[in-house]
Design brief:
This protein has 172 residues and is α+β, with helices and mostly antiparallel strands. The chain has eight helices and four strands, in the order βαβααααααββα. The protein has a four-stranded mixed beta sheet with strand order 2-1-3-4, sandwiched between helices.
Protein backbone atom coordinates (compact mmCIF):
# COMPACT_ATOMS: atom_id res chain seq x y z
CA UNK A 1 0.00 0.00 0.00
CA UNK A 2 1.31 3.42 -0.93
CA UNK A 3 0.51 6.14 1.61
CA UNK A 4 1.57 8.85 -0.80
CA UNK A 5 -1.55 8.57 -2.95
CA UNK A 6 -3.01 11.96 -3.84
CA UNK A 7 -5.87 13.23 -1.72
CA UNK A 8 -9.09 13.51 -3.65
CA UNK A 9 -10.72 16.92 -3.55
CA UNK A 10 -13.69 17.49 -1.28
CA UNK A 11 -17.14 17.36 -2.87
CA UNK A 12 -18.48 20.84 -3.67
CA UNK A 13 -21.76 22.38 -2.63
CA UNK A 14 -22.46 25.50 -4.67
CA UNK A 15 -24.85 27.85 -2.91
CA UNK A 16 -26.50 30.27 -5.33
CA UNK A 17 -27.42 33.16 -3.11
CA UNK A 18 -28.08 36.86 -3.01
CA UNK A 19 -27.49 39.01 0.02
CA UNK A 20 -30.76 40.92 -0.10
CA UNK A 21 -32.86 37.75 -0.09
CA UNK A 22 -34.85 36.89 3.05
CA UNK A 23 -34.97 33.22 1.96
CA UNK A 24 -31.15 33.15 1.85
CA UNK A 25 -31.11 34.54 5.38
CA UNK A 26 -33.43 31.71 6.44
CA UNK A 27 -31.04 29.22 4.84
CA UNK A 28 -28.15 30.35 7.06
CA UNK A 29 -29.05 27.85 9.78
CA UNK A 30 -28.82 25.01 7.27
CA UNK A 31 -25.51 26.32 5.91
CA UNK A 32 -24.07 26.59 9.42
CA UNK A 33 -25.24 23.05 10.21
CA UNK A 34 -23.61 21.72 7.02
CA UNK A 35 -20.35 23.52 7.82
CA UNK A 36 -20.40 22.08 11.35
CA UNK A 37 -21.17 18.55 10.18
CA UNK A 38 -18.70 18.33 7.32
CA UNK A 39 -15.97 20.88 8.04
CA UNK A 40 -13.43 20.81 5.25
CA UNK A 41 -14.70 17.47 3.90
CA UNK A 42 -17.34 19.43 1.93
CA UNK A 43 -16.41 22.62 0.12
CA UNK A 44 -19.15 25.23 0.39
CA UNK A 45 -18.91 27.83 -2.36
CA UNK A 46 -20.94 31.00 -2.41
CA UNK A 47 -22.18 31.71 -5.93
CA UNK A 48 -23.79 35.04 -6.71
CA UNK A 49 -27.23 35.30 -8.23
CA UNK A 50 -28.45 38.86 -7.67
CA UNK A 51 -32.12 39.18 -8.46
CA UNK A 52 -33.37 42.21 -10.39
CA UNK A 53 -36.12 42.83 -7.83
CA UNK A 54 -33.51 43.70 -5.19
CA UNK A 55 -31.77 46.93 -6.16
CA UNK A 56 -28.75 46.51 -3.83
CA UNK A 57 -28.10 42.81 -4.52
CA UNK A 58 -25.52 43.36 -7.26
CA UNK A 59 -23.49 45.75 -5.08
CA UNK A 60 -23.80 43.34 -2.15
CA UNK A 61 -22.40 40.51 -4.29
CA UNK A 62 -19.42 42.68 -5.22
CA UNK A 63 -18.93 43.59 -1.57
CA UNK A 64 -18.99 39.90 -0.62
CA UNK A 65 -16.19 39.28 -3.12
CA UNK A 66 -14.16 42.08 -1.53
CA UNK A 67 -14.74 40.39 1.84
CA UNK A 68 -13.40 37.15 0.36
CA UNK A 69 -10.39 39.10 -0.90
CA UNK A 70 -9.83 40.38 2.64
CA UNK A 71 -10.22 36.91 4.16
CA UNK A 72 -13.67 37.27 5.74
CA UNK A 73 -16.10 36.04 3.07
CA UNK A 74 -18.52 33.95 5.13
CA UNK A 75 -18.53 36.23 8.20
CA UNK A 76 -19.38 39.15 5.92
CA UNK A 77 -22.12 37.23 4.09
CA UNK A 78 -23.68 36.19 7.39
CA UNK A 79 -23.50 39.73 8.80
CA UNK A 80 -25.22 41.24 5.75
CA UNK A 81 -27.87 38.52 5.53
CA UNK A 82 -28.66 38.94 9.22
CA UNK A 83 -29.71 42.53 8.46
CA UNK A 84 -31.44 42.26 5.08
CA UNK A 85 -33.96 44.98 5.95
CA UNK A 86 -31.17 47.44 6.71
CA UNK A 87 -29.56 46.69 3.35
CA UNK A 88 -32.97 47.34 1.75
CA UNK A 89 -33.11 50.78 3.37
CA UNK A 90 -29.49 51.95 3.25
CA UNK A 91 -27.80 50.27 0.30
CA UNK A 92 -24.08 50.67 -0.35
CA UNK A 93 -23.25 52.74 2.75
CA UNK A 94 -24.56 49.83 4.82
CA UNK A 95 -22.29 47.38 2.97
CA UNK A 96 -19.24 49.52 3.77
CA UNK A 97 -20.35 49.94 7.38
CA UNK A 98 -20.63 46.17 7.89
CA UNK A 99 -17.09 45.78 6.57
CA UNK A 100 -15.86 48.25 9.18
CA UNK A 101 -17.78 46.45 11.94
CA UNK A 102 -15.94 43.24 11.02
CA UNK A 103 -12.57 44.98 11.13
CA UNK A 104 -12.14 44.92 7.36
CA UNK A 105 -10.71 47.80 5.33
CA UNK A 106 -13.93 49.78 4.78
CA UNK A 107 -12.21 52.31 2.52
CA UNK A 108 -11.14 49.47 0.24
CA UNK A 109 -14.75 48.22 0.17
CA UNK A 110 -15.92 51.66 -0.88
CA UNK A 111 -13.24 51.81 -3.58
CA UNK A 112 -14.08 48.29 -4.81
CA UNK A 113 -17.74 49.24 -5.18
CA UNK A 114 -16.79 52.33 -7.17
CA UNK A 115 -14.15 50.78 -9.43
CA UNK A 116 -16.11 47.56 -10.02
CA UNK A 117 -13.14 45.23 -9.63
CA UNK A 118 -15.39 42.28 -8.72
CA UNK A 119 -18.08 42.76 -11.37
CA UNK A 120 -16.71 40.03 -13.64
CA UNK A 121 -16.91 37.42 -10.86
CA UNK A 122 -20.50 38.34 -10.10
CA UNK A 123 -21.46 38.42 -13.79
CA UNK A 124 -19.81 35.03 -14.40
CA UNK A 125 -21.64 33.45 -11.45
CA UNK A 126 -24.95 34.86 -12.61
CA UNK A 127 -24.40 33.69 -16.19
CA UNK A 128 -23.45 30.20 -15.04
CA UNK A 129 -26.48 30.09 -12.76
CA UNK A 130 -28.79 31.01 -15.61
CA UNK A 131 -27.13 28.42 -17.85
CA UNK A 132 -27.83 25.61 -15.37
CA UNK A 133 -31.40 26.71 -14.67
CA UNK A 134 -31.11 28.73 -11.47
CA UNK A 135 -34.15 31.01 -11.29
CA UNK A 136 -34.23 32.02 -7.63
CA UNK A 137 -32.33 31.92 -4.39
CA UNK A 138 -31.22 30.02 -2.49
CA UNK A 139 -30.45 27.26 -4.96
CA UNK A 140 -27.96 24.49 -4.20
CA UNK A 141 -25.97 22.35 -6.60
CA UNK A 142 -24.20 19.24 -5.32
CA UNK A 143 -23.17 16.12 -7.19
CA UNK A 144 -24.78 17.45 -10.36
CA UNK A 145 -28.17 17.84 -8.70
CA UNK A 146 -29.87 21.25 -8.45
CA UNK A 147 -32.05 21.83 -5.39
CA UNK A 148 -34.27 24.94 -5.39
CA UNK A 149 -34.80 26.53 -2.00
CA UNK A 150 -36.56 29.64 -3.27
CA UNK A 151 -39.99 28.05 -3.06
CA UNK A 152 -39.44 25.87 0.02
CA UNK A 153 -36.41 24.90 2.03
CA UNK A 154 -38.20 22.02 3.71
CA UNK A 155 -36.11 18.86 3.51
CA UNK A 156 -33.29 20.46 1.53
CA UNK A 157 -30.60 20.10 4.19
CA UNK A 158 -31.44 16.42 4.59
CA UNK A 159 -31.25 15.91 0.81
CA UNK A 160 -27.90 17.75 0.66
CA UNK A 161 -26.60 15.55 3.49
CA UNK A 162 -27.71 12.38 1.66
CA UNK A 163 -25.88 13.45 -1.48
CA UNK A 164 -22.80 14.65 0.42
CA UNK A 165 -22.61 11.41 2.40
CA UNK A 166 -22.83 9.40 -0.82
CA UNK A 167 -20.15 11.51 -2.53
CA UNK A 168 -17.85 11.22 0.48
CA UNK A 169 -18.33 7.44 0.62
CA UNK A 170 -17.53 7.18 -3.09
CA UNK A 171 -14.44 9.33 -2.59
CA UNK A 172 -13.06 7.24 0.27
Amino acid sequence: MNDSSPTRPAPVLDIWCELQCPDCRSALDDIRALRARYGDRLELRLRHFPLEKHKHAFAAAQAAEEAVEQGQGWPYVEAVLARVEELDRRGEPFLVEVAGELGLDAEEFDTALVDGRHILIVDADQAEGKAIGVTGTPTYVIGGERLDGGKSQEGLRERIEEIADRLLAERD
